[in-house]
Amino acid sequence: MKRLGLLVGAVAGCMMVSASAYAAKPPDTWDGLVKVAAKRLDLAYLQPGADFRGYTKVMLDPTEVAFHKNWQRDYNNSSGRGLSARVSNSDIQEAITKGVAASNEIFAEAWTKGGYIVVTEPGPDVLRIKTGIVNVWVNAPDVQTGRSLSFAPEAGRATFFVEARDSQTGALLGRAIDQRYAGDAGPNWRTSVSNRGDFRALVATWARDGVRGVNELKALSPIRQ
Hints:
Elements: E1 29-30, E2 33-36, E3 43-46, E4 57-60, E5 64-67, H1 71-77, H2 89-113, E6 117-119, E7 126-138, E8 150-152, E9 156-166, E10 172-182, E11 188-190, H3 192-220
Helix pairs in contact: 2-3
């Protein structure tokens, strides 16, 4: 189930996601991009005049993964949470490392299946794609406490961002943001295995949507203001 919520304050690394982008009335422009109607994602911005027709290859930056700023604190401080059930800094780092690896694999597979060649060097026909899965909030992380199941509604939620640039000039062509819940709505028993599966399925959906979006932009190019 897809719902619009408050935006992540900032994305790890060099790309900052403005809090105003998820305001009640999102800005009409963002870093020179113009807001357009989005079919699959919450918000989309494009560079007027951008032409996507010449891109047949993609260069993928490593996916950024970041938990919600207060998730670890709030989870560990929740009522009745014993020391053995708390999430440690090493737990967070391990989850991020695994999340980056899994996301990189999922995005590369989606672009390949979409008919694009994944390359590592810039070129005139290469589109550079930057992605991130941020503001991650896991409802039932299944920390090892002797119990194998945790009861919760959705597995959690996250915010996705994607940015497209010309690989040679660095020109910003488009940017989109989307926030969704992972897993089926409604109370369910959760485990670390089911959580990984739900979040992996969510990332795969975002990956497919990104590829479809670029294909649709090719048909609309050059982009009109």
